[in-house]
Description:
0% strand, cell cycle, microtubule
Amino acid sequence: MDLSSKYRNVQVWLDNLYAGKPVPHFERNEQTIDLLHQLMEKNVARDSDTQLIVQDLKQKATEYTAEGQRLGCILASMNLKTGTLSQSGVTSLQTLTKLAWLLKVRDASDTSYLLALQALQEEADRIHEEFVAEERLLVKLSHKTKDALVKHNSIRKTCQDLEDVTTLQATKLEKRQKEVSFLQSKIQEYAKLLSKLKDSVSRTGVDSSVFHESLVKRAQDLLKLEDELGPLKKKLQAYNELPPDISQAKLKLVELRRHLEHLEDELSKKIGSLKL
């Protein structure tokens, strides 16, 4: 509905509401008209509901009046009047009237009362069944709530443990990061120092044979020669024990002595180069 239609409906409603009296001035903008239109719709709906209730009450009043006249005729046929009833009769009549009002029966016949009481009993049984079902549901929900609380506490404890571990790991990680930063700075420092030393060695013209790698290789070669020299010495010792009159033994001995001297010379050279 557009704004102009809402405004016309609101204006008609206000005219009917004030019944010829001047309608109070109001600001005519979209927000005000929307609010008045909503108020009009609610008021019209409430008036409709009220009219329905009034009509229902009038209908019931007519029915109760007719029923009172019928009961009056019955009492008149029995030569009884309301004023001639005993106190107990008046009390019973009032009780029946209140009961008819509570049960909302259409007339005061026994059938109407019995049907109304039966409907009331069925309603009570239905409510009792719903109450029992709600109690069972409440028990189930209580058990589920307890389980949920237990799980919640367990999860909360696990989270707390994880937070503690995370805090501890963060401290260790920070320490490791500091150590890594320190080592990286040292690596850079040593790299610069090594570069300077290489430049210095290159400028001084130092023989590469005195470098650490060369010395290590020479030491390894020396150990290898010593290992080879040991068995030869043992073999020479065996030849020295041979009889002197064996010519072949002499020749072999001479050959071994030459080889031994050669090895000793190489060993002396290696040792001399290590002293440099």
